[in-house]
Amino acid sequence: MTVPDDVLVGLVLFAITHIDTDTYPGGWVVDGFPRNKIQAAAFEKELTGYEPPPPPEPKKGARAKQAVAPVPAEPAGPPPVSGIDVVLRLDVPTEETERRAVGRRVDPVTGIKVDISVA
Description:
The protein is mainly alpha-helical. Helices cover 29% and strands 5% of the residues. Strands 1-2 form a two-stranded antiparallel ribbon. The relative contact order is 0.09.
């Protein structure tokens, strides 16, 4: 069973808003979230208030011309600005993530994390 997008967004926002900024003054990183466009749009809207403009409505009676590109419309003003600073997506092959997960160890005395697959 999956968690609905709106519930997941709410949980992540709750966690972010309860971060101790004295302990973590530099901000935060969300790893593995959002997982789809719906989550990303809802997260950004709730976090920053930013909502992208809706796509333009097609004109009545106009038929789509596939051979000719439409003339771009003049921008009405500056483009909207998102409140998210950066988004990174890392594509790692499944075999590599499995190899690293299987090779991960923690020294019981020092607590140091070691990857024995690269040692």
